[in-house]
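Reopening this ticket.

The earlier resolution said the output was attached, but the attachment link was broken on my side. Pasting everything inline this time so it's all in one place.
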Amino acid sequence: MCIDNNNKNSRPVTPTEEDCCHSACDPCIFDIHKKLLEEYERKKKQNIKIWNVQNILCTYKYKDFIVVDVKKTSESYILLLLKYQENDFRSGRGILITPGQHVMLHLHDTTKPFTPISFTDNTIEFLIRLYSNGKFSMYLKNIKLGDIIRIRGPYGNFKYEKNSFQTIIMFSMGSGIAVMYPIAKSVVDNELDETKIHLIGGFQDISQIPLKKELQTLSDYWNFKCTLHISQLQDTCNLHAINIKSGRLDKKSVSEALENKVTSTTLILICGTHQFNSSIEQWVKCMNYMHVHIFE
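Inline output:
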């Protein structure tokens, strides 16, 4: 929520027409403002004190970020590092994003949602898949250091509390791994969290796998395991600490991954294409898993 920093009980500021990019975004800034206003009125009626939020990001207003680094991480993916404009950066403020949340990136006339894989007080890093015919991808292929990309957010209702589950099983397809990685890293980085994580991803071939070094680093921890299914595996591949399997991530492999797991203490996270998400959800629910979250 973006509110007036000088008044802890201030009403959410109404967006202007200039704040809207007119790209049919979902969610639209005016829809977000309506929900924030309803929440404000509810708290006001219940006499709940509305505290100042020191997040640089705003859910209904774009902020300008500068491109400071672009590097290739695999055949189809790049890592994009953005930095917030310094002239509006003040002490006591920073970027606040819960692992698993996404933001909206606006470049020229195109807006797309992306999940940050990491962030600091004033920088955000994204894993972005490039598509040969994608409009946003074409813009990014020609982007230069110092160019401006606008961001608003964060969005997403996924919340995780440490040690609330014994096991987290993550099923991802392609770029869905960008959602799973920051969640897994936040658990591994917390020495008080003893939750075990198994990240299971699907890719077409070895050359498309992004974040190889990052996944290998996580795999050195006792409570993280990574298995990648490659549908077009040509040759034997050995990635340190990562289990590579030939073939698609299908019903049989999902069943094997969940074998001997306790349904009541296992959290299932799913992120991929709509068809992938629907299939995995159907399979795990048929196995009586009740704690399932899908990232659309």
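Reporter confirms the inline version is readable. The radius of gyration is 20 Å. The first strand starts at residue 63 and ends at 72.
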